[in-house]
Amino acid sequence: MSEFNRTKPEIEFFDGDAPDDLVVTDVEVGTGAEALPGSTVDVHYLGVDLESGEEFDSSWSRGQSINFPLGSLIAGWQQGIPGMKVGGRRQLVCPPHLAYGPAGSGHRLSGRTLIFVIDLLGVS
């Protein structure tokens, strides 16, 4: 939806130690339909490693949003997206246990604290 957040976000560097719990920050509050725990969401997102500041994934870079049932996403997204409204932009700081698990659990991002900026484009 072109009327919402038309540009790739810039990540604000996170001050302080990596959090032990999910940190949710609304960058822009939406006015559309609200995402619920069982929703399927259409989002644009940017993911950055907290420690290095390096981008590891971005729907913006691929030029298209993603559409997924919330239940199939990492725990940080399952907890951090509900309550968000279409048109909103939210930053999630996900510690390893809410992202890809502890170091050595098989994913290239396991053991990492990750920052995501998510634009909610649609909910169904």
Give short descriptive properties of this protein.
124 residues, 32% strand, Chitinase A, domain 3, six-stranded antiparallel sheet, 2 helices, mainly beta, globular
E-strand count: 6
Total discrete domains: 1
N-to-C CA distance: 14 Å
- Principal-axis shape: globular
Can you identify the CATH class?
Answer: Alpha Beta
In quaternary terms, these chains amount to single chain
Query: Which bin fits the share of residues in helices?
Result: under 10%
CATH architecture, by name, is: Roll
Strand content: 25-35%
Q: How much is the average pLDDT?
A: 92
SS field, number of helical segments? 2
Uncertain segments of ≥5 residues (pLDDT<50)?
Answer: none
Give the SSE string: EEEHEHEE
By CATH, the topology is: Chitinase A, domain 3
The computed structural class is mainly beta
Largest sheet: 6 strands, antiparallel
GO molecular function: peptidyl-prolyl cis-trans isomerase activity
Organism: Homoserinimonas aerilata
Keywords: Isomerase, Rotamase
Catalytic activity: [protein]-peptidylproline (omega=180) = [protein]-peptidylproline (omega=0)
